[in-house]
Structures are given as structure tokens and as C-alpha cells.
Amino acid sequence: MTERKTPAQRSTAPGTSTADTTAPKRKTPARRRAPADAARKQAGAAPAGIGSQARGKVMVTGAAGALAQHVIAMLKENYDVVGVEFRGLQTSYPDTVDYVVDFNTRPFEDVFREHGFTAIIHLGRIRFTQSTRGRRYSANVTGTARLLRLALKYGVDQIIALSTFHVYGADARNPSLIDEEYPMRAANLMREVVDAVELENLFNIYLYKHPELNIAILRPCHIAGPGINNEISRMLSQPVAPCLLGFSPLMQFIHVEDMADAVVRSFEHNHPGVYNIAPDDYVAYQDALQLAGCRRLFLPSVPPVLARRAVRALGRYAPPDYLINFFKYAVIIDGSLFARTFDFKPQRSLTELLGHYRGNK
Fold first, then answer.
1. What 3-state DSSP class applies to 328?
2. Can you give the pTM of this predicted structure?
């Protein structure tokens, strides 16, 4: 029988001390997968590696998110998957979540000790709008640093890390097509995404210092579609969405199911490195709003302080003001390296993706 968690049973928020002395919380009985583990230990065999007949266990973080749910559903056909949620942003969790535990607490190591993971797919990150700066940094950067140390300690063979194209920053001087060698300028342009850049820098350090971890860093364009709750998806879901007078930058979108396919391909083919992920097509922002069935609300674009005040006044109906430049300047990334390396081609068209939002209005 599945055992549902209550708020009192869940791990406390990052930075608190009560979770340090308690076991990690599970949604399922502790012995759910014990027979297979016990048999393997009794036989004296090491955890099976990626590509072997018994594929080994895979940890997926951010397991409550829509992208992670698609990834887990695809992986479960061939792998033993353990879903971990560390963000503590919800009061109830889907069946894809096996543990709710803060990365910075002692019980998180118990999860590694129990399961002997061969790989980690790190999809969870607290966005700027979801928490305070201190808690966000503790979870995203400090917590991920501990995850990487535990991965080394317990012999993890592979890590897939989800980043974002936002690390490039939005600026009028950006090239028309940005490849993986372009510097991450977002930290200089937007202090609110410093933790995202630091998170990537952390993975890059481990990528080159510890090649045995086989780290692949994925920088997707806008992820959208059913269940996605990021800033751009919320705007496309609204009947009225703001845009800046005189600006309609080109944008790229990838369907959540295509992104899940990209994550699984990068995991199964195991080519470490840094990769942009984006389709070949793109659309002007104002055209995207119309295709999604949104009425456009025009806001003043100059002076910049007035534009930011107008965005703030709209509250949840507009993107955070720190992202305002992404609605002024195009940030088009080159996804050809990932497409060639992993034989990847998105299957959902831009019309189908935006039609999802139109159909739900």
C-alpha cells in the first residue's frame, strides 16, 4: 500500500536543522525494492553499469516537475528509477517522488548508501520567483555541490545536469546564433541568475576535474507544453499577455516531451560535454502570443525604469522584471551540436506546441 506523506512528515526547508537527525521521507514502504538489492549484495556483485543487461539505478532530482515526470516515465521501461524532490515547494507530490529530502542534510547521503546509483539526472532547480535568495542559493548551489561530492564518494558513473539558455544573458550585442563556446554573461547582466551561472560553473569544474563522472550539461531554450509552470509558459497560458512597444524578439520553444526525449538520449548515449538544445525553427514573440491565443497588452519600453515599473505593476501577468531584456533582445541558441551528437530531432511542431495554449483558453 502506498504511504502518502503529510506536511508534518516532509523534510524541512533547506537551511533548517531538524531534518539532519531524521531519516529521508519516502512515499513508498522502505522495502519496496529491497529484494533486488539484497540479492545483488548476496551475490557479491557491484551495481550494474549503464549499458549492461541489468541497467542499474538512476536518481532523478526535481521529480515532482513536469519534465522529470516525462523523463521518469520513459526511463522506467528499462531502468530502476528513484525520484528525489528537494525543493519543498509543494504540499502533495506525484507518484514519481520517492523521497523528499534536503540535499544539505545527513539523510540525503542515506539515499545514496541505500541504492548504489549508477547515474544521476539532475533536473531540479529553484527559480528566482520561487524563493528567497539565500534559500535558493543553498538549494541550487550548495546542495548541488554536496550531490556532486556524494556522487564521487559512491561511484556514480554519469551525471546529466539541466541548465538554461538564460546563462548567456540577453543583450543587444549578442551574436545572431549562440553556440556553446559563447561566454555566460548573465551574471554581469542580471544578478538574479547568479546562482544559475554558479551552478553551471560548478558542473564545469567537475566535468574537467573528474572525467569519471561523465557529466553532460544541457542548456535548453524555452521549455513549454502541458504541465510546465515556468515564466514563459504562464504568460502563454493567460488570455492577455504583455509585450514591449517596439520589440518582438525571435524566440525558440521546445515541447516538454521532446525535451524529455533529449534528456534520455543524452543519458543513454553518454557523451560528456556542454550542449545547447533547441529546434531549428523560431518565432517572433508577438506572433507566438497570437498563435497561443493571447491578446497583446503593450507596455512602454523606454525609459527602462518605466518599463520595469509597468512589469512589476502587472504582477503575475508579466515576467519578472529581471527577465525583461529577454523580451527585448533575441537570444537564439545553436542546437546543432546536440542534434548531431545524439541524433536528435524534435517531433512536436511549433504550431502544435503553441496550439496547446490556445486550446486551453
1. coil
2. 0.82
